[in-house]
Amino acid sequence: MSKKYSILYVDDERQNLISFKATFREDYNIFIANSGKEGIELLERKPIDLVISDQKMPEMTGVEFFEKIIPNHPDPMRILLTGYSDMQAIIDSINKGKIYFYISKPWKREELKQSIEKALEAYELMKENKALSSEKEALLVKTERQEKENVIAQLENLKNQVNPHFLFNALNVLSALVGKDAKLARKFVQKLSRVYRYALEHKDQIVVTLSDEIKYIKNYVFLQKIRFNEGLVVADQIAEEKLNLYIPPSAVQLIVENAIKHNVISSDNPLTIEIFVDEHDFLVVKNNLQLREDSVQSTGVGQQNLLTRYQYLSNKSPEFYQKDGFFYSKIPLLEQEI
Predict the structure, then answer these.
(1) Contacts of residue 209, Cβ cutoff 8 Å, sequence gap at least 6
(2) pLDDT (mean) for 251-278
(3) How far apart are CA 294 and CA 132, in angstroms?
(4) CATH number of the domain that 236 lies in?
C-alpha cells in the first residue's frame, strides 16, 4: 500500500497506547486516545481510515464507542480487541458496532499487522464501490435506455461481489466457528466460496435458470442461518418443472437480503421466508412483517432495479406489497433465455 493510512487506537491503559504507537508508527500515521470520549473528539479533528478499540474500558466499552461513532463516521474500518472468553462482546460488536475484525488479547504484532492490512484493503474496496456508484450515475445521463440498464446491472453485480461488510461479517462468523466446530467451519467455507463463485460466473448474464438461482439462495441462506440460528426459517416449495424457467441473477437474493435487513430476527420471533411459484408463473417470496425499530429506511433501489430490468425482459412487471401482516415480492418467471 503506497498511501500511509491513519489509524486511531483507543485504550484506557497508557502502556498499551505507547506500545501500539511504537510498533506501527513507521507504517502508519498513528493517533491514540485514552477513552472513547477522547476517541470521538479526535475523530472530529482528524481524517481516520481505521479505528481499533479495546473492549473493556471504563465509562464506555469498545462496542458502545463504535455505536456512537457510526452515525457521523461510518467509513473508517473497525477492529475490536477483546479477551478469549468475552464471546458476548464479539457478538455485540458484529451486530451493533459493525466491526470487520476482532482480535484476541494480548495481540501479537504479526497477527494484528495482517488484520490491519486486510481491513485497509476492504476500506479501499468500499471507496471503489462509491466510485462505481458515481460512475453509474454519469453513465445514466450519457447512454441510451437499454445501454443504461445493462451498465446498471453490471455495476450492481460488481458491487455485490466486493461487498466488504457481508464478506467480513462472514469471516468473523467463520473465525468464531473454527475453534468450536471445525467440521461446520469447513462447510461454511464451502458455502461461502459457492456464493462468490455464483456472483462471478453469472455477473454478465441477463437471466439464469430458476434452478441455478435457488441453489445460490440455499448457499446464501446457510451462511445467514449460522448467524441467526432458529431465528431465520427459509422454505422453498417449487415444482420441478418450474426450475427450468428463467429469472434475473441475484433477484431472489436481493429480496431475501432485504427481508433480513429490515425485520427483527430472534428465536422468540423467527423471520419466516417462503419461496414458491404461483399459478401465473410468478416467483413469490413471502415473509412475516416484524420491522426493526432501528431499521434504516429502505431506499427502494433494489426494487427499482428489478422493475426497470423487467421493462426490457417481459410485458409483466414485479410486484411488491404488504397484506395481512406479510410482505410479498412477486417476480415474473421467463420461458426462454434472453
Answers:
(1) 243, 244, 245, 246, 247
(2) 92
(3) 28
(4) 3.30.565.10
